[in-house]
Amino acid sequence: xxxxxxxxxxxxxxxxxxxxRYISTxxxxxxxxxxxxxxxxxxxxxxxFFTTQGNVVKQFRLFNYLKSKxxxxxxxxxxxxxxxxxxxxxxxxxxxxxxTLLAAFSV
Length: 107
Description:
Layout: H1 4-36, H2 38-43, H3 56-67, H4 77-106
């Protein structure tokens, strides 16, 4: 039989790996954004996005931009692809976190 602790540990590992994939893809998006959409890069504070002095309001600007799919009409297919991937990985990471927390409190 598989113990509950093993299931929670496996879920935590999968969630951590997907969160690292999300952060890595977000960094790649910000790098591509510098050339593809310089105005948005400035609005989300691209240079200071991952620093401790990063402005949370500007980070929410990127979240809302991705949530509302404002990038769908952009001319650069690489930028649109990166935005889609970041959005999908964010949704996956949130869902996995929810399942992991649900499993942790139910076992």
